[in-house]
Structures are given as C-alpha cells and as structure tokens.
## 1
Amino acid sequence: MNTFETIMSRKSVRKFTEEVISDADLNSILEAGMAGPSAANARPFEFLVIRDKHMLEELGENSSKYSKPMKNATLGIVVCADKSRIFPNAHGFSAVDTTIAAENMILAAWDMGIGSVWLGIWPDESNMENVARIAGLPDSTEPQHLIAFGYPEDPMPNMRGGRFEESKIHYEKW
Ligand SMILES: Cc1cc2nc3c(=O)[nH]c(=O)nc-3n(C[C@H](O)[C@H](O)[C@H](O)COP(=O)(O)O)c2cc1C
C-alpha cells in the first residue's frame, strides 16, 4: 500500500484473531510512533506495551465505558505523556504530540495488515485515573490514549470512499 491507500483504507477494528504480533512488527509500530512531529521537539510521549492477556482484559473492562475491544486484542499500547515535558499553560501540545504518535502507529500497523482501534482516555480525568491505576503508572506519567491492536477477524477493506465532504472545505477568507 502507498501512504494514501493506507490512510484511505484504514478503519477501526474491534474483533481480533489470536495471532500474535511479532516483536519485529511491534518495533516498527513503535518506531512509527516516535517518528512524528512534536511541538518544540519536546517529544513527551512514552509507550507502555502490554501483551499479557489478564492486563488486556482488565484494561478493556475498566478503563472507560467504551474500552471493551481491548479485551480481545493481542497487544495494547498506552500512549502516555511524561509530565515533566508538558509545557506549562500549553497542556494541549503534549496531547497533540501523543495523538500524532498514536495515529502514526495505527497507520503503520494497518500497512502491515494489523488492525487497531483507538480507545479514548484523555481528557476524561476518571478514565485517566483508571488507566494509571491498572497500568501502574508513576505519578510523573499521564495516560492519554489507549490503542488495541491485533490481526482483524474480518478481511481488511479496500480503499473506502464516501467520506469526502466538500461542504467542510472553506477557501481564503471564511
Ligand atoms: C479520540 C478517539 C477516541 C475513540 N474512542 C473509542 C472508544 O472508546 N471505543 C471505541 O470502540 N472506539 C473509539 N474510537 C474509534 C471511533 O469510534 C472511530 O474512529 C469512528 O467511529 C470512525 O470509524 P473508523 O475509525 O472505522 O473510520 C475513538 C476514536 C478516537 C479518534
């Protein structure tokens, strides 16, 4: 797939087979996560990699109301921010950086035939507390995104159309 095909065919996957993602593919996914732009190059992202079935089930059950897909994933990644690298008065920058990291990982995985779904955590304080507790994060680290990965149970789709909306585009002065 070229980049455009990867972007245009990706969709959220919530049902996974039991096939394990190799360490080599995991490393490529993590490399993609660290390759994006970062405000002032602060690179606040930290990644917690989880393969343990009980941990994946616990995260799926108790992170948020909508985190259940993690229960049948073979790999979970908690994308966190190192609080010492969060800009005072510009907390949002760290979330932008970790969001880019998350999407880069999702797209890199998709290109390798690995599906995923983003499970929203930040900025809901109670979701963040749940994940921090389950994952045993130190106080210095803030969980921002949870991503469930695995090989899709259903065949991966081709390029998806129908999402382009001309009405959302505005030119020059609005
Ligand atoms: C910030 C964010 C949070 C999300 N949280 C959840 C979630 O908690 N549970 C879930 O099943 N999907 C979640 N999703 C996936 C969206 O539901 C999905 O991207 C959307 O329905 C569009 O479908 P697509 O990804 O297949 O294009 C989240 C996506 C984003 C970007």
## 2
Amino acid sequence: MKIETKRLIINKFNMNDTAAWALIECDPKVRKFVNNKVLTYGEAKSYVLENIESYKSNGYGRYAVRYKSNGKLIGMCGFLNDELGIDFGYRYSRDTWGRGIGTEAAQAISDYGLTELALSSIIATVLPENIASEKILIKLGFIFDEETYFMGKLCKKYKIVN
Ligand SMILES: CC(C)(COP(=O)(O)OP(=O)(O)OC[C@H]1O[C@@H](n2cnc3c(N)ncnc32)[C@H](O)[C@@H]1OP(=O)(O)O)[C@@H](O)C(=O)NCCC(=O)NCCS
C-alpha cells in the first residue's frame, strides 16, 4: 500500500519508524484530544507493532504519513477495529498543523478505505472542542451519527457509508 498526494506519501508503518513516532507521541498537545496521555518510547513501539500486525490480520491499520519532499514521518492516518465499528483516525506533529496536511491525508485515506478496501462503513469519534478534526470529517462527507462516550468524555460520533 502506497498512496501519493501533492505533498505526502502514505504507506505502512515499519519498525524503523519507532523513534520518529515516539517523538510525535510524547507531545502533550498532540495527545490532548486523544486520551490526554503522552506515550513512552515503549508504548510508541507497541503502537507501531500493533499496526504492522493489523495490516496482516485485518488488511488495514493506521498508516504512516510522510513528507514527500524528505521522507520524514509526520503522523498517521488510517483505520482501527473498534467496538463501535471501523474507526478512522489521524494525528500529526504540531509543526505541521494548519496547512491542510490533515485534510490532504484524510481525503486520500478515506477514499482508499471506501474504494480499494471496500469498507461498508467507517466511523470516527471526535471531542466537540476539536474543531479542526471535526471540520475534516465534515469536508470528507462524514455525517453526524450520535453522541457517545469515549474515555469517560462525551464525543460526537460521525459515520460514512459506502
Ligand atoms: C486535528 C488535526 C489532524 C488537524 O490537522 P491540520 O493539518 O491542522 O488540519 P487542516 O489544516 O487540514 O485544517 C482542517 C480545517 O480545520 C481548520 N483548523 C485548523 N486548525 C484549527 C484550529 N486550531 N481551530 C479551528 N479550526 C482549525 C482549518 O482552517 C480547516 O478548516 P477549513 O476546512 O474551513 O479550511 C491536527 O491538529 C492534529 O494532529 N491534532 C492532534 C491529534 C488529534 O486531535 N487528532 C484527531 C483526534 S479526533
């Protein structure tokens, strides 16, 4: 799996991504709307490994998002099996925010999920204060489904159906 957009290359994580991923996940601002807990190096390594295993067992996972210009890992975007359904998620290092990167990757990966993977439906949960993330979902055509609780917090669940 390899997807190219104007500025990005999106492909599978590999274990060599661990150090760069740990650097992204140790930033409290990046994790604020996830579960508000930064990851240790060991947890970041497990995350990379879990995704590599998910590619094999599920045929998808969260994917590595890299700058096309220099190959640098800047974040992730992709799918995760969740109790609510196939969850769409993304996060990026803070230095990339506000330049359309989140939208660019999300558009490409949501298209990939609906067409190549032929997923029948995809869900996403977002905290109401995470305006940028919610805007991305709406731009992609996700529709508000219901309010739900995630980690004890009220979230908005969005859904897109194939
Ligand atoms: C949420 C996140 C992925 C957004 O990525 P991004 O590259 O900054 O997003 P974009 O530049 O594509 O912007 C998307 C939209 O949000 C708007 N936006 C960006 N930052 C914003 C902010 N801080 N407040 C309000 N709106 C914002 C943009 O103007 C754009 O709106 P538009 O569609 O009207 O033009 C990024 O901030 C991130 O990684 N956050 C930490 C992890 C996270 O919260 N993940 C999502 C969990 S549900």
## 3
Amino acid sequence: MNWDHYVRPGIRAMAGYTPGEQPQTGSVLKLNTNENPYPPSAKALEAMRRVLDEPGAERLRRYPEPFGDRFRDTAARVLGVKPGNILIGNGSDDILTILTRTLVPEGGRVQSLEPSYLLYGTLASLQGAQMDEVPFGPGWSLPEPWPNSGANLVFLPNPNSPSGTVVDLQSIRRVLPQMKAPLVLDEAYVDFAPATGLDLVREGLPVIVTRSLSKGYALAGLRFGYAVADEALVRELEKVKDSYNCDALSLAAAEAALGDGEWLAETRAKVIASREHLERGLAHLGFSVTPSQANFVWCRHPHHVAKTLFDGLKARNIFIRLMRYPGHADGIRITVGTPEGTQRVLDTLADLMAKKV
Ligand SMILES: Cc1ncc(COP(=O)(O)O)c(C=O)c1O
C-alpha cells in the first residue's frame, strides 16, 4: 500500500521532531533530557495512590475533569491568578500544540529565537506555517529592534535551551510592542531560574506563560503542563484541546505537587548546588561554559570534538545531548544530576580527555 497519495504533502515533506534517547534501563546515567534526578513529592505519589485505592477505582472508571477544575483552583492560589487563567495540558508540549493550532493560521508565520527548542519548528510545519528563526542578540539578549516578519506567534523559552540563559523582564516589556504578535514565554525550566514572566500576564499584556511538571517537579513520565493566559484566550484554547487531555492520575498528582512548595524549594536548592558544581568542574576541564539558570549546562571545548566526547560517554553508559546548531560550535548539553552523578560525568570526561579519545 502506498500512502503517499493520502498523506498531506506538508507532513510527507516534514522530518518530524526527534525526541531525546530514552533508554528504559536503570543502569544508565541519564543526563540527556533534563529530567530531575530526585523522586517527585511524596504528596504527589500519595495523591495518585488515593485515586487507585478508591472503592471501585471510581476516578479511573469515569472520564476525568475536562478542564481540571481542582488543579486550576490550586494553581490559581499558588500563582496568584484566577482559575480561569489556567489551561491544563498533557505535558507542556501539548500546550504549545494547542497554542499554535489556535493562534497560527495555515500559511501563517511563527517566530522563535534561535538556537532554542526545536519542537516550535515542527509545530509550525504541522500547521502549514513558516518558521522564521531570529538569532539572539549579544549575550543571549532579545534582539532590538525586533525583526518583525508579520508573525502570528512568537516563542521564547525562558530559560532557553540549550543555552540555559534568561532574558530579563524589562527587555521583554520593551520589545513586546515591536513583535506585534502574542508572545509565548515557555517557562519549562523556570523552577531553576530567578524570575518568572507571570506579571506580564497579570498586567494584561499579550503574553502566554507555559509551564511543565517534567523538570522542576520530577514528573516527566506523568505528562502534565499548563498555561497561564488571559481568561478570554483560555476559553478559545479550550475549544482546541482534546476534551480529556489530562487523565485522573496526572490531575491528582499535579494538584498535590503544585501545593507542595516545601518539596520544590528543597529540590531546587539541591539542583542549583549541583549545577554550580558542574559548571565549575567543566570550566576546570577547559570547557567554555554558558552560565545556566536551568537544570542543564551547555558547553563547548576548544580542543576536543563534541561528538567524540558524546560517544565516549555513551560507551560508558552516560547519556548526554550532542548539540549542533548552524553558526555555533558543536557543543554538549549535560543535565544536572545528583552530586554523585555530576561528579561521575566530570570524572569520566576528564578520563576521556586525558586519553585524547
Ligand atoms: C524549552 C522546552 N519547552 C517545553 C518542553 C516540553 O516539556 P514537557 O515534558 O512538559 O512536554 C521541553 C522539554 O524538553 C523544553 O525543553
């Protein structure tokens, strides 16, 4: 059977997004997709157990809350917004898809900072839209004046991946009117950063903040994310999302996780301490390190080939990410692990570099 005749030409022409490698064995030190090295909040695990233990597994037998009202109440309280400002998603990727489908017409244009999260380009292609990549300004700043291309939507990950850098809110406020399009502030890594752009939403600016429970909350396997946006926009986004895009277990866990501020503060402090250790260790090995506000570090070495280091680590069961972007030297991105994991990757790199592999 030849499906070429049936599949949309735009889909056939696409390469598709390549997710990071997900080895399903415990013996690997997995520092390639920015997961949290610590177990999630015990309260989140307990909330899921309560769902499973209900008589007749009632909450699994029935459809889940379509709009996640209980989660929205908790999120609104924690974030200081209204429940109507919150859109629930099956991971923040789901939220990014819903935003693109709602705000970008077929044949439209999307702008994203470059280099950044590659999924934005895939979402634009799926929508039959053009992706305009905008290089960062000096020191990973927003370029000014903004190169307005008539885009329907702009994506800015803050902190950015792979650089781990943040753009300050004053420059966003300054550049936003020049964009002439809504701005998605992708805050997947904000739990490790000093500031959030939620104030921009509260001030009624055309900004949508997207959040993930995969990184700061150690729940990547659960698939839960959310957006904070103007209530009128959330009502439109809800028309586009799948009716039941979040399941009963993830809703219960997400609500408990967001309510457990103590767990977040402790875990965040541990990850930031390991991040500083990793940055110092890499600099000591001669890497050029971009200071990170996220839970990963991006670095390049003047004398060692990134692909060789990547392969050498992989051969020793340590998975990191090889990052190749046009106009930038090949680099590696290493997720911040536990203190032991961080030391192991540093020691192994030192070993590999001493052997000149
Ligand atoms: C910048 C950025 N945004 C969003 C995501 C997606 O996260 P989630 O697991 O919530 O879909 C990622 C995942 O790596 C990311 O790097």
